[in-house]
Amino acid sequence: MTCGDAETTFRWAWALLDGLVGAGVRRAVISPGSRSTPLTLAALRHPGLTTHMVLDERSAAFFALGLVKAEAAPVAVIATSGSAVANWFPAVTEANMGRWPLILLSADRPPELQDCGANQTMDQIGLFGSHVRAFHHLPPAETETGWLGGLAARAVAAGQGPLPGPVHLNIPLREPLVPPAALPPARTMSRSVTPLASQLRPTADAVAAIQSLLSSGQGAILCGSDDLGVGFHEAVMTLGECRRVPVFADILSGVRGGAASGGTVLAHPDQVARTAPAADWVLRFGGAPISRAMTDWLGRCGGRPQVVVSAHPRPADPVGVASHVIHADPATLCRMLAEPMATAPGWRETFLELDRQAEWKAAAACADDIAFEGTLLRRLLSGLPPETALFLGNSLTVRAAEWFAGRLPHRLRLFGNRGVSGIDGNLSTAFGLAAGCGSAVAVVGDLALQHDLTALALGREHRLVVVVLDNGGGGIFDHLPQAGLPEYRQAWLMPQGLSIPAAAQAFGLDYVRAGEIGTALGAIRAALDHAGSSVVHLPIDRTVSLNRCREFHSLYDQGDRVHDPVAALSRR
Asked: Is the pTM of this model over 0.85?
């Protein structure tokens, strides 16, 4: 029986939130609103939830996404009805393609206020379409709440697999929305639902089939942009050594971190892929690589065995050259395949020689203190303390890290939004990482900063060092064909002229302008010891940046092999 009194509505909302807590949700990100009051109060009053208030709904959803990434656990997001819910859409698409479990709780108007011109009312049923793993439209509040715990548990389970992703619960709420002040806290009734870790172990026949494919000719291993965990890092490096094949590892895979990454793991796989010979077979893990050169190299290996290994039912094969797909735990499969096998003399050494040349060129491009994205990222990634959480913004930032960072002396917690790869919400995601990890560093471009400027309001509560690589607009397009158009500056570069120091001041954040790399790195180190958030601003000459990237990517002539990076720099 539906009811219109505030106490019933509050207890209804409590039962739903309590069910989410019982299913493993420990955090809720809330944006203020009237219609969502029962949900907000239930979250704020529940002893099992840590709550975060974020004004901007778009920022709130990306902030929640950062929390999910940091803690590998589902996070609830609460907003009022109307356009507030639509502001979640960019983060929902990122969570969908990146496979992150956001639990979306949207307040809605009850049925009698639909389709009649009521204020702040729109059709929210199925709003996110195929971007969510499950959608539930609840009835208005009832006195009977016993079934809500089961619904909440199913919603969390749908968000966590077999293909993780967001889940949407749409919750119509009738007025009155504010319960009596003397209302005692609702009784916690949730039964804890503890997810148990499991591994998708491949069958003996599947392993034998892959072993047969890998026994013919000379191969390679490719680790895409998903970080599959330390256990996988160790297993795939062991497999590469056993097979004596090169390992192409995307910067976001995490495989390049740690002293053990030497030898078979390439430091500059993007550069190597530009001239590397095609392999007779490729064993592939994780998402699509950031590097276009690695993707093109996979295309050149087309028509030969390429085995894509995925722990979920959405394998990454954007080029369409996979010959086999196996649904299995990547680390487990690596261990089962780790048997020594003879390879042709010089096969791996060919790749390692190309890699050494790329390392000389990267060192040459980054040998001085002139402000340049590659230099900043190369030195930052090698100089941060172990296990530091680092968010790499989209467009040029993450690509510069891919090109120039090389191998890292120890493991970092590297993150990016590579689901749909937008610049929207980059800062908000990074603040969520800082909330989940205790602190973090985010490196973003000037347009990404402006696109998510309201996220700086989160800096009053969380410890994030925001490093702004300011190249005066969309510098990534300098590397793309659009740069040759007469409308390039107007429609693609789009320099904004934002006063970054004024923006930092407006949100009460510390600000440092760095004229060179050493100053920027010193400011970042100091900011990491600071209690609040800071902005480190590095203006970059786009001409210098473009020329250094072009020189790094230029192919070596047979008679012009440079072995001295300092000499190479002096010849520029």
From this structure: yes
